[in-house]
Amino acid sequence: MKKSTILFIGAGRMAESILSGLVQSPNVKDIYVSNHRNKEKLFYLQKKYQVIPSLNWREDIEKADMVVLAMPPEVHLSLLQDMLPFIHNHFVVTIAAGIGPSFLEKHLPENTPAAWVMPNTASEIGQSMSLVAYGKAVLENHKSMLKQVLDAIGEAEECSEEQVHQLTAITGSAPAFLYAFSESLIDQAESYGVSHETAVRLVAQMLAGSSSMLKAKLAPQELREQVTTPGGATAEGIKVLQEGGFDDLIKNAVIATNKKAMSKGKE
């Protein structure tokens, strides 16, 4: 398989998370990174990941097979307008919330292959659960090219554009919900007299083990019931969560996240 050259426009946290996994891939030839707002960040990334700093993406875009837009959603329109004269047989991919392939297609030359990837920050340890939606002009060679990226940062699921809009909160934002849950458990563990380090280790391993059980294809309900003896201590805790509206809180958090992401894309 031909090795790809990739240009990242934008060098924020998510871009770096992807880069940290991507630089391990044997299928990538060169990685250029552009970030006009912070040149120091470019040289930091060059030193840490051996990427090539691009001080002007307009000069380097012709070297790229794939262009990854790692900019905030609200600047995509102006960026795409700037890119328009420079796009010739490029595969354009965005990782911005709320920006689907149909938006890219609307503002790029006709028949430009485009895709939307929503990874999460676990990409930096090769454990992302990424969602991907393809545009109308994407061919199998483009999918193979993007697969090189996705395989380097974890697992991926191909979805429709609408499904990515709906599921981003679950795969991309819900890790923050989990970390907030973890913070509460850690705080409570510390209240029982253990050190912060011990509390973090207890909670982290509990979550890791529980996640492994889920990945073993066991149903969440079955796993919950294994832990929850009727009338027992765990059942009492579950009762408190249910009476506090736990299910509704999680669902409403997902809905609110999706609504905000879509509004940012429209901006």
Automatic annotation (TrEMBL):
Primary enzyme class:
oxidoreductase
Q: Which UniProt keywords apply?
A: Oxidoreductase
Question: Is Oxidoreductase given among the entry's keywords?
Answer: yes
* Source organism superkingdom: Bacteria
**EC id:** 1.5.1.2
Provide the protein name.
Answer: Pyrroline-5-carboxylate reductase
